[in-house]
């Protein structure tokens, strides 16, 4: 299940339960003749229902739907207005579902901010109107509920972020993995087509990696991959991205980089790696295949294959070298 779909279900469920709860409150107040509370609860039930409908309408944009803030601000303001104008015992407890709804539906900071905007004036009203012991018990309970819910949401967000990072990161080098490469490259190709900017890529392979592994062992080679990743991150500029492929191969996406640029950076990478002293193995060299997107290149595999073939050509030409393969240009 995608994050967007999960959020849609959670939001719709949250609004649904809140609507049912508030509607029941409204009916009870109608039954006992508390008409002010009945109108308040009915208004809140309508707003929560509107929230559920809005969730379903905007199901494709759940992660950034701005209407939730408007709906929840309405609910919170209604609650505060009721506290200020009505003299109804127990109404402060209505804030509980509202706090949970704020944190469940809004991004953490917005949820906490909106909840505090409700809780702080509410605490002042309670301290002015009620006995100190009662006011402390109610506000204390509400603040504890807010803190626990906020902690839980923070923990969930943190876990979700860690899981996402793990899914796109190579466990050995810490660079992005091949799975994420295709996703990013496709986005960069679409961006280059839309803006007309140059896009270049580099396929980089460590020369004689198998021989190095036989000589020093698999663990030492993995150490070399890690050191080389760190080195590459130090050479490339912000906006470039680095990926670890299988078999001691790396891949670089260089947005806004023309043919002359990719030749410069590839040669710089080759030279700095050859000149560097690597722990355990001492010297290491790499072969680099580069290419720039031509107007006919719209697919990731075209660019990846061409860069890979260019890398093999560099290797055939004696390793420790760079080979550039031009992109295909379609005349319009
Ligand atoms: N994507 C990318 N391109 C680079 C990088 N370094 C150099 N280039 C390309 O090579 C060209 C010449 O780079 P340099 O020789 O460093 O000259 P420069 O004038 O300092 O380049 P700028 O970084 O554009 O200021 C740049 O305009 C880029 O197109 C890099 O780290 N990443």
UniProtKB/TrEMBL annotation:
It is an enzyme of class 2 (transferase). InterPro entries: Diguanylate_Cyclase, GGDEF_dom, Nucleotide_cyclase, Rev_trsase/Diguanyl_cyclase. Keywords: Membrane, Transmembrane, Transmembrane helix. Residues 197-327 form the GGDEF domain. Pfam families: GGDEF. This is diguanylate cyclase. It comes from Marinobacter flavimaris. SUPFAM superfamilies: Nucleotide cyclase. The chain crosses the membrane at residues 12-31, 37-57, 69-91, 111-128, 135-154. The lineage of its organism: Bacteria, Pseudomonadati, Pseudomonadota, Gammaproteobacteria, Pseudomonadales. PROSITE patterns: GGDEF (PS50887). It catalyses: 2 GTP = 3',3'-c-di-GMP + 2 diphosphate. Its EC number is 2.7.7.65. Gene3D superfamilies: 3.30.70.270. GO terms for molecular function: diguanylate cyclase activity.
């Amino acid at each position: 299940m995608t994050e967007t779909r999960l959020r849609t279900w959670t939001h719709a469920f949250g609004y649904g339960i809140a609507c049912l709860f508030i509607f029941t409150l409204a009916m009870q107040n109608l039954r006992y003749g508390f008409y002010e509370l009945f109108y308040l609860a009915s208004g809140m039930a309508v707003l929560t229902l509107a929230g559920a409908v809005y969730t379903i309408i905007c199901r494709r944009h759940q992660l950034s739907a701005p209407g939730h803030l408007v709906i929840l601000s309405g609910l919170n303001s209604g609650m505060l207005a009721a506290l200020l104008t009505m003299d109804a015992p127990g109404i402060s407890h209505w804030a509980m579902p509202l706090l949970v709804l704020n944190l469940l539906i809004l991004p953490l900071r917005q949820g906490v901010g909106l909840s505090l905007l409700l809780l702080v004036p509410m605490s002042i009203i309670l301290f002015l109107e009620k006995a100190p012991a009662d006011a402390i018990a109610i506000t204390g309970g509400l603040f504890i509920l807010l803190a626990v819910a906020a902690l839980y949401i923070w923990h969930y967000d943190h876990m979700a972020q860690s899981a996402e990072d793990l899914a796109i990161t190579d466990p050995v080098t810490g660079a992005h993995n091949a799975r994420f490469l295709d996703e990013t490259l496709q986005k960069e190709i679409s961006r280059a087509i839309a803006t007309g900017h140059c896009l270049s890529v580099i396929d980089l392979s460590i020369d004689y990696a198998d021989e190095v592994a036989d000589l020093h062992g698999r663990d030492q080679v993995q150490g070399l991959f890690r050191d080389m990743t760190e080195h590459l991150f130090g050479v490339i500029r912000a906006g470039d991205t680095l990926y670890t492929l299988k078999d001691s191969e790396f891949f670089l996406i260089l947005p806004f980089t023309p043919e002359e640029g990719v030749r410069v950076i590839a040669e710089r990478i080759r030279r700095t790696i050859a000149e560097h002293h690597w722990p355990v193995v001492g010297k290491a060299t790499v072969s680099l295949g580069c290419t720039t997107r031509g107007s006919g290149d719209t697919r990731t595999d075209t660019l990846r294959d061409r860069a890979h073939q260019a890398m093999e050509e560099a290797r055939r030409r004696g390793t420790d070298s760079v080979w550039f393969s031009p992109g295909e240009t379609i005349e319009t």
